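Weekly modeling sync, notes
Attendees: S.R. (lead), two postdocs, one rotation student

Agenda item 3: backlog of single-chain predictions. S.R. asked that every request posted to the team notebook include the full sequence so nobody has to chase files. The rotation student volunteered to paste the first one in as an example of the format we agreed on. Action items at the bottom.

Example entry:
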Amino acid sequence: MMALEPRSVAQLAGASLSLLGWVLSCLTNYLPQWKNLNLDLNEMENWTVGLWQACVTQEEVGTQCKDFDSFLALPAELRVSRVLMFLSNGLGLLGLLAAGLGLDCLRLGESRRGLKKGLLILGGTVLWAAGVAALVPVSWVAHRTVREFWDETVPEIVPRWEFGEALFLGWFAGFFLLLGGGLLNCAACSTRAARASGHYVAAETQDRRQHPETNKTHLKI
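Predicted structure, as returned to the notebook:
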């Protein structure tokens, strides 16, 4: 079994990280654990809020969720987060498709190296943009949560919202998409190994052996 080229390893690593980041960004979009609220008066009750619904978990009843009735009634950070997370999911899918068609391990379009390189760069750039679109909303919601938690104008007896698990998933998703897109761009800009050029020389030699009459014509000229 022949060893993989560093270029191919970078492509596979970038595609794998990008795929993982895209899956995490989709989970972040739909999970209702963006913010958690634990009530001191009733420790058996826990409230969570996401982009699409609010949930309450009680020890006796279990978890009950309710979708938000109005988009315009949501806080600004949640409205913008919805749009950006949808944008991140869409860009991530497009980036994965473009980068997948540009991978060296895919034989499709192998003779058109310029096109495959362009697709790989396009995919890496789109995935990088998807990572930024995922990091912005989770960081904004986290920033607002911290400000509200330390707001001195709110009485201490009032419960405070804290970070939910979905925010950490969103950070991981954004970093994986950024790292994966960067690896794909680096791999696209790197040169192919000498082994690859030898492969084309061998193919050209074989072609000459199969068409000796053409070679003789070139020699006469």
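Discussion: group reviewed the output briefly. The chain has a mean pLDDT of 83.
Action items: rotation student to repeat for the remaining queue; S.R. to check formatting next week.
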